[in-house]
Amino acid sequence: MNRLHTTAAAVMVLALATPGCSRNRTLPTQLAPSQVTTLAINSYLWRAAIDTVSFAPLLQANASSGVIITDWYRNPKVPTERVKLTVAVLDPDLRADALRVSAAKQVYQNGAWNDAPVSAATVQKLEDIILTRARDLRRSTIPGEGARRVRGRRSR
After folding, report:
1. 146, 140 in Cβ contact below 8 A?
2. Which of 24, 41, 103, 133 minimizes the number of CB atoms within 10 Å of its CB?
3. What does the alpha-carbon distance between residue 87 and residue 72 come to, in Å, rounded to a whole number?
């Protein structure tokens, strides 16, 4: 008889606890496209940043931290100047504030490389290029996104 009471009590506890463990149906079942990533950063921004700075040799490109650092790059047309870029993708969302670009510039004078100021417009232009490329990558990979844009146009 004691064993029957113990079994009945265990079944009752399981019956009461099981609904609390069931799947919460109020949670969304699909992630936003910007959240579809295995990285802690936005994969579209990451790919766009790598594509954009690929003209310069890479020193570091760490997708886990979202940091890209280039080595010094000299434009063959202006051999007395060189630039070094650092790009940081900071967030898993595809937003302008999820991206930081910084640049260092040096000018060759009197046999030595000397630091020179970088125009804020130059850094802003790089950020814009990366963001535009990331948006284009996103549009091309999301099913139906490109078709929606084409459907809005009328052909004659």
Report:
1. yes
2. 24
3. 14
Q: Which two tokens stand for residue 133?
A: 């490329």
Do residues 98 and 76 touch, judged by C-beta distance below 8 A? no
b/e code 112-150 from CB counts within 10 Å (16+ = b) = eeeeeeeeeeeeeebbebbbebbeebbeeeeeeeeeeee
Lookup: tokens for 61: 């490109």
| Burial label, 101 (beta-carbon count in 10 A; 0-12, 13-18, 19+) | buried
Structure-block tokens of residue 55: 């003209």
Q: Is the pTM of this model over 0.85?
A: no
Under a CB-based contact definition with an 8 Å cutoff, are residues 139 and 149 in contact? yes
Reduce the DSSP state of residue 112 to 3 states and report it. strand
Cβ-Cβ contacts under 8 Å for 56 (sequence gap 6 or more)? 70, 71, 72, 73, 83, 84, 85
> Tens digit of pLDDT for each residue in 104-136?
999 999 999 999 999 999 999 999 999 999 999
Dihedral of alpha carbons 31, 36, 40, 44, sign? negative
